[in-house]
Specification:
By secondary structure, the chain is mainly β. It has one domain. Helix content is about 5%, strand content about 35%. It has one helix and four strands; from the N terminus they run ββββα. It has a four-stranded antiparallel beta sheet with strand order 1-2-3-4. It is globular, with a radius of gyration of 12 Å.
Length: about 60
């Protein structure tokens, strides 16, 4: 079994981030992508469709 990749950044549930285009997002949790064991961030927008969760690789989230 492969090892989980180390995470260069860490995020905490409930933290909020503003996207460079202006959107505000809340972190739900960190997770592991099943296909390659890379770390991902699970987040949701705080405006618009706030009931949909999204994921983005940790390496490109920041």
């Amino acid at each position: 079994m492969s090892q989980v990749q180390e995470q260069p950044h860490s995020v905490k549930a409930g933290e909020r981030y503003r996207h460079y285009k202006g959107g505000l997002y809340e972190i739900i949790c960190q997770a592991i992508q099943e296909s390659d064991l890379s770390p991902v961030v699970v987040y949701r927008p705080l405006s618009g469709d706030t009931h949909t969760a999204w994921t983005r690789p940790m390496s490109v989230f920041f």
